[in-house]
Specification:
Length: about 220
């Protein structure tokens, strides 16, 4: 189930790609990139255990076997592999699937992908701990903002974070904004939502919760 953003609640299958060019301290998938224990969990993951090279045809067949209408490609940062991602996306579109790619917005999208998918772009704010020069790439954000249907999803903790979002929205001409509470358990999510909901609505933005946490907790899928 897609737990976040415009497709919240839709049945889907996830393809999670390894590796990331950022290192957000609150990352909820550090097992995709954190080989040195930099995230808040402090856990050192072993890439030999976490990553596997799989031919795209096998990935495609396994996704199709789920028999769901929506495929979500996430990470890590999946656009680090976007050239190799294209044949998978092309085949899944040919088989009638809707496709969403979740990205941190630092890698400008391949125009061939932009014709086939919806991008859920999640630029990282200062509380991620990533340096601004790495997390905000103007050329990439401008390119995403120009792709019809792109949704921008901002992980926020406090109403002050919305000021930071507002600056990015203005600077890059972003017109589809989703505010999502940061949190890996229901108490944290509820607390953030209570702080964010009124100021986000007042700015004319959308809100999303994290439905998968509500339903299954912070459990890693298989
Ligand atoms: S960009 Fe996403 S996957 Fe990468 S460290 Fe940040 S939250 Fe984790």
């Amino acid at each position: 189930m897609q737990g976040e953003g415009p497709s919240l609640g839709r049945r889907c299958a996830f393809a999670r790609l390894g590796g990331c060019n950022l290192a957000c301290r609150w990352c909820d998938t550090p097992y995709t990139w954190d080989w040195t224990g930099r995230s808040d969990t402090g856990i050192v993951y072993d890439p030999k255990k976490e990553l596997r090279v799989i031919p795209y045809t096998e990935v495609r067949d396994r996704l199709v076997a789920y028999d769901v209408p929506l495929i979500v490609v996430s990470g890590g940062e999946p656009l680090n592999q976007q050239t190799r991602l294209y044949p998978l996306v092309r085949d899944l579109r040919d088989s009638g699937h809707d496709i969403e790619i979740e990205t941190n917005g630092t890698v400008a999208p391949d125009p061939r992908l932009a014709e086939l998918v919806r991008f859920n772009v999640s630029p990282k704010l200062a509380h991620s701990g990533d340096p601004e020069s790495r997390r905000i790439v103007g050329r990439a954000l401008t390119a995403f903002a120009a792709v019809p249907g792109t949704a921008f999803k901002f992980v926020c903790r406090t109403a002050a974070d919305l000021d930071e979002v507002g600056l990015l929205v203005e600077q890059y001409g972003i017109d589809s904004v989703w505010v999502m509470p940061e949190g890996r358990n229901q108490v944290a999510i509820d607390g953030s939502l209570a702080r964010l909901r009124d100021p986000a609505i007042a700015r004319g933005w959308n809100l999303t919760t994290r439905l998968h946490i509500t339903m299954w907790g912070d459990r890693r899928g298989v």
